[in-house]
Write a structure and sequence with these properties.
Layout (H helix, E strand, L loop, with lengths): L14 E5 L22 E2 L2 E2 H11 L4 E6 L3 H9 L7 E6 L8 H10 L3 E6 L2 E3 L1 H11 L4 E6 L9 E6 L12 E3 L17 H5 L2 E9 H4 L12 H12 L2 E5 L5 E3 L5 H12 L10 H21 L3 H19 L4 H27 L5 H28 L8 H28 L9 H13 L5 H11 L2 H22 L1 H7 L1
Parallel strand pairs: 1-4, 1-6, 4-5, 8-12
Antiparallel strand pairs: 2-3, 6-11, 7-13, 8-11, 9-10, 9-11
Amino acid sequence: MDGILKQETTDAVDTAILLTSAGVFASDYMDSEQVMPSPLTRVGGMTLFQRAVLTLQRGGISQIWVLAGKEEAALRNLLQQDSRLQAAVRWLPVREFPPHDSETWETLADEVNGSCMVVGCHTVFSPSLVQQLRHEGGQGKAVVVVGYSTEGYHVGNPSVVVRPEGLEGNSASSVMFRDPPVAATIEMTSHGSNHEASCLPIVGDLMVLPGRLLGISGVLHASGTNPLRLALEQAAVEGTVMAIPGETHWFRDVRGPQGPKLAEQTLVRSLQTLKGGLDGFVDRYVNRKCSGILTRLFLKLRWSPNAITVLSMVVGLLAAGFFIPGSWQFALIGAFLFQLSVIIDCCDGEVARLTYSESKFGQELDIWADNVVHIAIFAGIACGAYLQGPWEQTNLPLVLGASAMLANVASLLLVNTARQLRSRSRDSNPLTDRERTKIDFMLGKVANRDFSVVVLICAALGFLHWFLALAAIGSWFFVTSMAWLLRRNLISRA
């Protein structure tokens, strides 16, 4: 969407300026292909440009002004084909609005009402960081994000450094500048070999500036000096700089030869915090540790979350088939396949969150696929126990299997009802706080995928028939407990 976009006066920042070809503190003449990655570089299943736009949008930014270079046509095509985009995008070619020219920022300052966010298209960051910047920047101060040397490398711009006390307050001495300014890179350093580089907090390419400071660079113009740096210097003189430590959320600079790889490692590490609402102990500490490897593979293959869900269901149904013959060897293979299905099932949510591809349909597909697999597993184990084992050629395994399958269907209906109630606001929620706490406990501790490990252990020990009996009894205990907790809502619906 071209044309002038005016930001309404609000307490939170609503506009972001995205630089695709240059860093926030680097001029065009400093950049090189070896240092500055292309905005089309893929990190975590998306191009850097898409990730920056969608992260800003998820953080609450509704207007994004893109200062694009020669890659503008390709970037436009990306957004035109992306159904996830909801923010208004304005395209500003760098040939008309060069980032290193003070007149560019003076022009943009006239169109910004309040403050705006300035972002380089080579930083991977979180929506929660954008939300904090929007909130803090709405107070009329300059807000910068800083990072430290961590795990052997540092992020940000070595020419703009925040003193440690700047993280505690907003003193005028909280920002200092090195000369000459150099392009930001990710540099490998050994602990102790470069004490200054490993200890000083460095300003990253993600900050908020008031509109008045964007237009002040013409007054303070110094030849060869980055206009945004001049604006930040003025804020430091005024004592209106606020520093936010990036480690509070996470962000990673992507520049340098190892930049994309290190940034993707940051994303992968963040997967451990992307837990689903029904994760149990085994999910949290076993399945999601293994799923990170497969998630990276699915990102490289560009699989959609729904495709991963279908793959998980297919593997689960294949596992159920191996339980049918009833032999120990086939049952063990089926148990391992079932565990693999559960691990793959963790990947669809992780890919969806990393690529901002969550959807109501995907959530429902995941729930139904899980239950189809569980019903098939119970049926397969029941058939195997009927054909071989202590209860072979008796009706007991078939009765237990049918009971477990029926209880699973009832559990699905009750869990869906509980999920709908949990999603309501407290004002319109018919559940009391005590009922809500008990339901959260039931969903978090019982209605999860941890039983896959029990299936694996029982298969290895040859006790699947006993698992079937426990599953039939335990499933109905869960159904009865959930029905009792939801009784008031169920009665009112009836």
